[in-house]
Amino acid sequence: MEHFIKYMDRIRAEEELKDKTKSYILYHIKEADSVIEASFTKNRVVGHMFFKKRILVGLSTIAACLVLAIGGYSYYSNPVSFVSFDINPSVELGINAFNRVVSAEGINKDGETLLDQFDAINLFVENAAEVLVRKASLGGYIAEDGSSVIAINVQSASEDKALEMQKIISDKIETLLDDLNTDAILFADTATLEQRTEARKMGISAGKYKVLLYMENLDPAISFEQYRHRHFPELIEEANDLIIKFGIGGIQAREYEQTRQMVISTDREINETKTVEQDQMQQQNRNQPVTDEEQDLKTKEYTESTSDAGKYQETNQNNKGDGKR
Amino acid sequence: MNRTSSAEEVVSAAIDKYADMIQRICFLQLKNSSDVEDVFQDVFLNYYLNVEKFQDEKHQKAWLCRVTYNKCKDVNKNAWTKRMVSINDLEIPFESEVEGELITAVLQLPPADKNVIYLHYFEGFSIPEIAEINQQKLNTVYSQLRRAKQKLKRKLGE
Fold it and tell me: What is the ipTM of this complex?
């Protein structure tokens, strides 16, 4: 690799490129500063005139200057959109007008744990999404067998903006999953800011709230309380059962159906693999000559393993697609 | 303003120190100087916004490697970039045939493999350090490096 090192050592950035980059960065820093400076300066002139008359008025104007200066900063730090992630960790990111993360909150305990591992603030939303999913994968929240569902929901005042952000984030996560050689089911949707407010009052993500709302629309007997603690794949299944029951069609119904099929087929693959492995084990046991003592032991093991398989199937029905293994 | 002059110093220092490294990563991942310029601007703007979070120089360098590689991936994924027939104006002349064959072979590797080769052999990062930089599992990095070396051996007929 000596030739490689020598060649790479000869590669240098041109001075023109460095200067251009410096100018670009400084322009953007100055532009951000001038927005704040403009608010501050305008009110400083006004404050000077008042100060000649009364100190109290001057003090209140200084307070006003501070409010306006803070206002300049708060524009940057004000979230205008939100993105919720349900993997099993449930997380919500607040996004500003520049597509940067300005707030990050764990909606459940696993979500808090995940966010403790890195600082999402100031990252572009798609980069924060990438880090989140990466951390979730490293933390064992995304199963290697591809049965996990990664549900993303974008909430914004503008539907177009929400869809655009949803696409950027989905593309990023799909690329990441390819790089990690990991499969997972990606379920992306949008919601309104009002729906997000209702969701947060209930202590759940907007994504989960949207699915529950959909289910309630199909069957008014559905209780939010009954379902709000269920995992996403279970909700998808329930939603689809309702779709079939009430004979509803449409784009959203097809999305639920498609996601449900992916969840079920992955589950079936896992079950089939486990059954084949158990059959092979049993075949090996039968073929070996055994003493009476060993026979007794093996009978006991066989009984326990078949009852475990039954327990696994029952557990799997109730906890399908549980992301954490 | 004091804020701007100190910002100017911070950014200028970072660009002077790391521009060559960013250029090398871009050389391996991108095809034209226009894309390199975009990546430079994105990376250093991001750097400025995150400068207070760096624990030390090593952390800073690792962060820059990761962000640059990710930005290059974003550029390559862009639909317009895929459709464009781009001229590779980033190459510099080879000093020998052997060098030319090796660099050509490296450039033909998949993006992730090229990145690992560069970080390990040129920047001197260990495998665990590369796993940390790329936020990948250790075995993944080992596999990438092993695979890259095998492909290079096959191409170069060793």
Answer: 0.87
